[in-house]
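JOB MANIFEST
job_type = single_chain_structure
chain_count = 1
residues = 188
[input]
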Amino acid sequence: MGLVIDALVLLVVVPGLSLAIMYNRFVRQQTLVNASWGGVDVELTRRHDLIPNLVATVKGYAAHERTLLEALSAAREAAAAQEKQPPAGRSDTEEAMGRSLAAVMARAEAYPELKADQAFLDLQHQLVETEDRIAAARRFYNLNVSDYNQRVATFPSNLVAGWFRFRAHPFFEVSDEAMRTVPPVTLS
């Protein structure tokens, strides 16, 4: 009789304990993914906040670059409108804003007075620093998503994921072109 009870306990307790451990690990990993996305979002918002200052500074020196500045402002507005969206919904608008920002920064090279302006240099430095922080936050987020998604897809944790509706998270991906167009810092 004691052997039957021991076997019954093993058949109920061990799977139940394993289930609880796997569930709790999913919750921890999902929380980490959400927190790491928050880090990306903070840095993207910082970049959005720097754009109006850049536009105002450049506008004072390069008023005839109006089309380029308007394109950057429009791209910034589109990206800012997506702030509450998940990563998959933000990649395209953030890439478009990055390309517009790079175009403005490249065009600014043609204005020696602008390149020497301390406010512009400070903004340029802040933008480059922000781009670096976005890249680091994006790598951290994608690493956490990779670990989480691997657990969602592999046996036996995929059974727990299915039962409790843990779904794979999207990566926050930007094209190689967008990564190559990070605004350069020029020290005068």
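[summary]
The two ends are 86 Å apart (CA to CA).
Residues 2-61 form the longest helix (60 residues).
exit_status = 0
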